Amino acid sequence: MRDRMAGALGALHRDEGGAAMVEYAIVTAVIAVVALTAAQALGTAVTDVFDDITAALQGI
Fold first, then answer.
1. How far is CA 57 from the centre of its chain?
2. Over residues 11-17, mean pLDDT
3. What DSSP designation does 59 have?
């Protein structure tokens, strides 16, 4: 019985699938944050361009 339990615990200790899954989740979260930040910055830049176009058209 003790050998079976030790073998099962050893197998769980060697299994790193859960750790890899956590690492992939962290990488995915970081990529999502970077993408959202880039989209927000791009949106602000596009808004500024359209504001400049609007101001130029009003001056005509």
1. 40
2. 65
3. T
